[in-house]
Amino acid sequence: MRSLFMLMAASFALLPVFAQAASHCSVSTNNYSFGNYDPMSPLPTNVTGTNLISVTCNGNGSATITVDLSTGSSGVYFPSRQMTAAFTTDVLKYNLYTSASLTTVWGDGSGGSGDVVIPYAMGTSNFTVYGQIPAQQNIGAGSYTDTITVTVTF
Q1: How far apart (Å, rounded) are the C-alpha atoms in residues 77 and 25?
Q2: What are the residues whose beta carbons fall under 8 Å from the beta carbon of 64, sequence distance 6 or more?
Q3: Who has the most CB within 10 Å: 32, 67, 81, 86?
C-alpha cells in the first residue's frame, strides 16, 4: 500500500501547472464642471474647460487601451451633445473633444466621432477631456447637467 501512495504522489508532481494573471483596469474621473455660462454676455465667448480620466491597469492586457465616451442624453455626437435643466425644456449645447484644438469630438469612433487609443501599459494612464459650450445660446437660468458614460476596452 505504501508504494502505491508514493507512485500516485509522483504522478501528481508531473502534471503541468499553468497560471495567467487576469487583466484588470479601473476608471476614475471627477464631475466635469464648465462653471458659469452667461448667455447675455456682451462679448460672445465660448466657455471651455478640461477634466481628467484616469485609467489604472494591472495584469496582461491587449495591445491597446481604448477610451470611448457616450453621447449623453442627446443620443448624438453631432451637431452637439446637450445638457438639460430641471423644470425647463431649455437645452445647453456642448461637446467634448480629444485635444485642445477642439477638432475631433470624443465619442466611440462612430458617426464622425473619434476615440482615444494608446498602447496598453500597466499602471495609470491619464486622458484629458476638452470641452466647449458655444456662446450666445438663449437659455434660462438654472443648473444644466448631462451624464456621459466612459467605456474602457483593453
Answers
A1: 26
A2: 117, 118, 119, 120, 154
A3: 81
pLDDT digits (tens, 9 = 90+) for 31-83: 999 989 988 888 888 999 999 999 999 877 778 999 999 999 999 999 999 99
Tell me, yes or no, whether 8 lies in a domain: no
d(CA 102, CA 80): 13
What's the CA dihedral at 112, 118, 124, 125 to 10 degrees? -50
75 domain-assigned = yes
- Dihedral over alpha carbons 34, 40, 41, 46 (to 10 degrees): 40
Whole domain around residue 45: which residue ranges?
41-51+66-114+129-153
Please provide the average confidence, as pLDDT, over all residues in the chain.
Answer: 85
How many degrees, rounded to 5, is the angle at CA 136 between CA 91 and CA 79?
55
100, 132 Cβ separation under 8 angstroms: no
pLDDT by residue (tens digit) across 119-145?
A: 988 899 999 999 999 999 999 989 999
Q: Looking at the domain assignment, is residue 123 inside a domain?
A: no
